[in-house]
Specification:
globular; 71 residues; two-stranded antiparallel sheet; alpha+beta; single chain
């Protein structure tokens, strides 16, 4: 959905909290790289359907991964 940055962050925090509380996995497709870096535990990047990036993220870690520079 096209949410403003405040609502996007609120939804992402809610989803992250629910996932941790319920011990479930959420797979999400995000085109906002900063949002992905902020809330994801793992980030995978695809290029024409091929996996080109796959890294675990520590809390607060900003990856600034190259595939995202095209965003």
């Amino acid at each position: 959905a096209n949410l403003d940055s405040h609502n996007a962050e609120s939804i992402m925090q809610l989803l992250r909290d629910l996932c941790h509380e319920q011990d479930v996995t959420l797979i999400s497709v995000l085109h906002d790289c900063m949002l992905a870096e902020t809330y994801a535990d793992r980030i995978c990047g695809l290029d024409n359907g091929r996996l080109v990036y796959d890294h675990m993220v520590s809390p607060g870690q900003m990856l600034h991964f190259e595939p995202c520079r095209a965003c």
